[in-house]
Amino acid sequence: MADDDLSRLDEWMGQVLHGLSPPERKRAAQRLGRDLRKSNLKRIGQNVQPDGTPMEPKKARYDRRGRLREKAGGKMFQGLRYAKHWRIDATEDGVTVTAESPLVDRAASVSQFGETKTIGRLRDRTPIRYRYPVRRLMGLSPEDEDLAMNVAEAMIGPE
User: Fold this and answer.
1) Model's pTM, two decimal places?
2) Which among 12, 44, 46, 95 could bridge 29 via Cys, Cβ 3.0 to 4.6 Å?
């Protein structure tokens, strides 16, 4: 989703939500947060980025003797797919979906931003570092824009 789309959505949602009381706005933000978390976790489970492209698959894993431990590909982010690991902070001004714990936050940010991480050590205690490919976990897709519109319509009610 382009920045101009986000600004238009933000402007439109601001106008819609301006007519609601603060508790109603907070309730709408909470509902939007739940829906966004659900759609993002579904995408993570399917190994698809928010823009709809597939994530770069996992590499094969070998043990110290060079034998294959785990084949390449397969499902990633087994633990990050659970809603209990993602917290929704809703206020009348907005909503954020963040990681519940520092461990989950670190695991998600390594892939989200393509950071380098120590994955093991050699016998002489030299660290083995690996730069992960960028795999966008959280973000807004075109379907998420429709979710926001549906939440706004539900809060306004039939007129």
Assistant:
1) 0.77
2) 95
